[in-house]
Amino acid sequence: MYRYDAFDHRIVQERVAQYRGQLERHLAGKLSEDEFRPLRLQNGLYIQRHAPMLRIAIPYGLISAEQMRKLAHIARRYDRGYGHFSTRQNLQFNWIKLEETADILAELASVSMHAIQTSGNCVRNITSDEFAGITRDEIVDPRPLAEILRQWSTFHPEFAYLPRKFKIAVSGSREDRAATAFHDIGLFALRSPEGEKGFRVSVGGGMGRTPVIGTVIRDFLPWQEYLNYCEAILRVYNRYGRRDNIWKARIKILVRALGGEEFARQVEEEFAHLQGGPSTVPDAEYERVAAHFEPFDYETDLADTIDLRGDKPFARWVERNVREHRVTGYRAVVLSLKKTGTAPGDATAEQMDVVADWSERYGFGELRVTHEQNLVLPDVRVDQLYALWKDARAAGLATPNIGLLTDIIACPGGDFCGLANAKSIPIAKAIQHRFDDLDYVYDLGEINLNISGCINSCGHHHVGHIGILGVDKDGSEWYQVSIGGADGSDAAHGRVAVGKILGPSFAADEVPDVIEKLIGVYVARREDDERFIDTVVRLGIDPFKQGVYGSRPGKNESALAEAA
Amino acid sequence: MSGAVLRADASWAADSTRVVREILAQPIVPGDIVPLADYLALPANRRGAIGVWLAADSEPAQIAPFATELALIAIDFPAFKDGRGFSIATLLRTRYGFTGDLRAIGDVLIDQLFYMRRVGFTSFALRADQDPGAAVAALRTFSDVYQASVTQPLPYFRRRAAHGARP
After folding, report:
1. Interface ipTM
2. Domains along chain A?
3. Which chain A positions have a beta carbon within 8 Å of B149's beta carbon?
4. Nearest one of A394, A356, A516, A350 to A447, comparing CA atoms
5. What pTM did the predictor assign?
6. Is A152 an 8 Å CB contact of chain B?
């Protein structure tokens, strides 16, 4: 993975010093809350329901054992002994003291980490494919390109006060595991017929109140030009994006207002001035950064067969949580943070420490964080899978549910988040409890169930095969259920779609029943091994609507919301 | 520090200009900084000692024909969170050839200064309540930068070789 050099270290340390000064001015009453807010946000600090929340960047989901141990240390020393891995490959601490935030950032800087631009109206943490560099369907390794983009976007002076937040995702495989269609800029790496690296560029995708699938504005952009092209997009957005209404301020609204063609024309016009300029990335820089991601010293001549030892639970885990690797004799292992009874994405300090140990014992000291809120050990030898599984089981990290109904994506919701309309975690837990029979869940096959506690959509409910959205209705919490969403990954055969709302929303205690009814319709109507999402696509939502509401009207007709 | 502006080199300069937010009946006098539309309406022989200020939603291309003769262009920040002025400054410097004094006016706070300097601002009319000492320090927040901008047209990756020997 990328290792900071003296330059990178210096920049991050200077950032800590800058923030410490701002914090001191704020605590001394010399910097108002209004003026401190954008500054702390660009250092990942939110003021939440109970306490400040600190969001730490894990650039494109890559983290070392040393860094993971540092997170464990921070969890113990400055928080309540756990952290929350988010859908943007970040880590959030929910019980931070404002006075200690500069010290925490200094701790992070000591292991080449930061919370820079994890919030605020700026270019956010760059996200990517958690299997980058090890997957067999890779066309271009996105990691060096994501790192160069991270450096370019760090403290970009022109784009620190955008109309709204700005998210860029980079993917480099046949399967889009980074949901590029749902980002402000989606960079989908591919090769030209001549074999040159480049990107298909989409803009204006996103979730939130107005879910939109990104518009492709360039079918092939030579990779060397991608910083110039991003600059052109951001300049058009920074100048013309709406600033009068927070709900209309994302780039997707500008793209829609101008039309994709006109937006593309303006970007191309701007790009014409920048193309070939100093920010064009030279081969030497690509190679310098790419050298950090060179393959590890893998053993050769390993057998590639997994000995299942006639152990059914192990075989189940291998099937669900173990993934192919491009090197013979190795596998990537997904450690589930979705054990029944725990908040999706939460990990304790002890778990962080132990996964750091495993990354060294069963790999090369590196881990990945997935946008589905699980962890990945990327380089496990086939003959060590059994030992790892036993360790993981003992630590509560071996639930064999990856991609299944109980592998729920959920935001922290109303238990923590100041923005949320409703709680997410208790809903996730209630569904996990209802579907606690692993064999049954396994037989249901792949189903993405995503929960957001409000329309900001941090829980990606719009792209859940089943999506649940918390809505506020006269001060009480209701849940709107949608089906048929898809994020572009293979879970729905590359399909990209925003889920359709089933009908009137439900009270919290009704949600598990609703999910059970949806599953009931699916089980009754599925053909052969058809996945849930395929059944929804084939039948449309009506049979599911009928199955859930029957002929009676919903309890809360008027809460039928607003998401269009 | 009223009557003084901070300069990009961290010095303070006396300043007797007047930002005319809206021209009503008063005469325009030398040293005035007037709105773009009023500047464009001035007869050519009167433009000499007059400056212009651009609102955040203005098109800098409109001032391009005068870029070489203007001594001062100000860009207004209606709120410190409004970053349009950063792009306008970049365009004035990199595309429209403006080399005179580029001044930030309006809601100008010290925590924006480092970025403002990088996109080509050369003077800052700070909001009255800002701490002058902290403002000077803010100009030096970072010792170097990754990406290209007006004041450093080469990204670090094109300068790295020259810095290679540094610890």
Report:
1. 0.96
2. 6-109 (3.90.480.20), 134-288 (3.30.413.10), 312-394 (3.30.70.3340), 409-559 (3.30.413.10)
3. 157-158
4. A516
5. 0.94
6. yes
